[in-house]
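Re: [ENG-882] Designed sequences occasionally contain unexpected residues at chain ends

Forwarding the minimal case from QA. Structure tokens:
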């Protein structure tokens, strides 16, 4: 009997087929066909070089197997096989612990592995890839930040006409920037969160919206922000199976974001407003920006009634005023937040700057300390129940 092996695998449901892992692997262990990116178990030496550059985390999957899955097995998958039960034995346990250590090392954020909310709709994933991309037409491109702002954020609407492109709030799509990079290779696909609800930017249209910030020298962000009405865009996806909205109208949703991290929360709010106007669950938004002029959707957000969405804005660079971050507002709203944290119907979503993660975590810890709750235990429980989600970059 062979000792169990640890095998590195790529999750086909999350992979955006951007080729980054294949380019990065020093062992040439990663390859692909039209369906999937796969890892050759005879070549992979667990150097982990591919883990960090992967934009989706799909690369970070491991199984303990009695016999390695072949490349052909992996090409045929639509989803990863579950971890099979192995005969217990010292080797198996030792390998398992080693894999867990590797996985832990690759996960630095407070988010960790995520689980979809129990009541979320089942998402469609990976319908289009680079070799067979959907072609969307730009039907709108509007600047979202004030004319005086140096922060250039755009609301871009993409229409899919008769191509099926089903999405859920919280999912992302890939945009294929045209042209080649300095090495003559096609540009990497970039991922953007969908900012509209599942049934379209306008109800019952086959379109969606993105919230995109122009980055200095950003290949894809400049491409998107400069798009004109009528332009055609190559789109992959949809992606994302966990950062999804609960369908349960009794679910309370606490949303914490900076800048363009607000995109999925626009989708969440619009879906609640349109599909569940009488929902009993509460929605709270904590939104950080430099100044009101730099806050995407500032105007439209003012019109969203407080009965639907409790809004708390944190501004960090208003002249003459103290710097305020989202975590400061969480502390300020301690009573309301701890009341919601005590409920098993409450979900937390964090989206935006990576730097915010630690501050938000510390604020929630402080808030819990002021009540009977233990944040670290509660966080693990919420994560396991699909009620705690972090997406930072
Ligand atoms: P700051 O003014 O200190 O950079 P950006 O406009 O760069 O996308 O940032 C959005 C908002 O997030 C800004 O108000 C920014 O503040 C704030 N921010 C930056 N770092 C953190 C952090 N560690 N925690 C919370 N908010 C942060």
């Amino acid at each position: 009997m062979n000792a169990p092996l640890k095998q590195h695998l790529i999750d086909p449901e999350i992979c955006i087929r951007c080729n980054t892992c294949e380019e990065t692997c020093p062992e040439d262990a990663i390859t692909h066909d039209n369906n999937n990116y796969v890892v050759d178990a005879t070549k992979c030496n667990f150097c982990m070089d591919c883990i960090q550059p992967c934009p989706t985390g799909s690369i970070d999957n491991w199984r303990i197997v009695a016999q390695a899955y072949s490349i052909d097995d992996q090409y045929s998958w639509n989803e990863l096989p579950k971890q099979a039960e192995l005969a217990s034995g010292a080797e198996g346990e030792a390998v398992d612990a080693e894999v867990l250590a590797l996985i832990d090392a690759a996960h630095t954020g407070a988010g960790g592995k995520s689980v979809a909310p129990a009541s979320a709709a089942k998402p469609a994933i990976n319908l289009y890839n680079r070799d067979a991309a959907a072609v969307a037409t730009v039907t709108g491109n509007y600047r979202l930040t004030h004319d005086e702002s140096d922060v250039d954020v755009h609301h871009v609407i993409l229409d899919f006409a008769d191509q099926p492109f089903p999405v859920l709030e919280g999912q992302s799509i890939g945009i294929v920037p045209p042209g080649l990079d300095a090495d003559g290779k096609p540009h990497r696909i970039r991922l953007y969160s969908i900012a509209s609800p599942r049934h379209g930017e306008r109800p019952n249209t086959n379109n969606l919206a993105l919230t995109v910030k122009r980055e200095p020298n950003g290949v894809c962000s400049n491409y998107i922000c400069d798009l004109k009405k009528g332009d055609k865009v190559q789109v992959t996806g949809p992606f994302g199976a966990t950062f999804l909205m609960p369908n349960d109208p009794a679910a309370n949703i606490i949303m914490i974001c900076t800048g363009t991290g607000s995109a999925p929360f626009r989708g969440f709010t619009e879906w609640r407003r349109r599909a569940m106007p009488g929902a009993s669950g509460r929605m709270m938004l904590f939104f950080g920006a430099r100044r009101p002029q730099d806050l995407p959707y500032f105007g439209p957000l003012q019109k969203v009634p407080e009965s639907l969405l409790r809004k708390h804005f944190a501004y960090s660079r208003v002249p003459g005023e103290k710097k305020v971050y989202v975590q400061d507002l969480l502390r300020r709203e301690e009573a309301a937040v701890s009341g919601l944290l005590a409920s098993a119907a409450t979900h937390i979503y964090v989206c935006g700057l990576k730097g915010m993660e630690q501050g938000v975590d510390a604020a929630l810890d402080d808030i819990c300390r002021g009540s009977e709750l233990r944040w670290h235990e509660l966080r693990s429980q919420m994560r396991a129940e699909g009620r705690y989600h972090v997406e930072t970059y």
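QA comment: On inspection the terminal residues look reasonable. DSSP finds ten helices and 15 strands in the chain. Proposing we downgrade this to a documentation issue.
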